[in-house]
Amino acid sequence: IQGSPSELKASIANMVYEIEHPRINEALLLLKNIPEVAGATPFGKRLHVLTKETMQDSSLIKKTLKEKGLDAFVRNIPPSLEDVFIYLFEKRNSKSHLL
Fold it and tell me: How far is CA 1 from CA 38, 58, 84, in A?
């Protein structure tokens, strides 16, 4: 994987969502079970959710949380370098499980 920090961030633009809810640990467990979610990581009192390219918007995230009583604030955010690292790590791990 090569590129400047800006290029790396651009490679996963529109794939990172931020979740705000008081029960962030419960949200984390729910979202990790969604096949279109590549990873979810706590960032302070918020949760960053990295999605696969197949997820078009946040509607599935919102629906999953709402079905379990978590009416969370969800928004698309620009990725941080940490988000990029986590995405690349998860992508590499998912490929190694296929070998």
Answer: 18, 27, 11
Q: Which residues contact 61 (CB under 8 A, 6 or more apart)?
A: 17, 19, 31, 34, 37, 49, 51, 74
| Rounded CA separation 97/91 (Å) | 10
Query: Which residue, 89, 51, 84, is CA-closest to 61?
Result: 51
Structure tokens at 84: 């990029």
Could you read off the pLDDT of 2-15 as tens digits, one per residue? 889 999 888 887 78
Q: Are 15 and 82 in contact (CB under 8 A)?
A: no
**Phi, psi (rounded to 5 degrees) for 3:** 140, 165
Is the whole-model pTM more than 0.85? no
Q: Provide the 8-state DSSP code for 31.
A: H
Residue 46 contacts residue 16 (beta carbons within 8 Å): no
First to last CA, the chain: 20
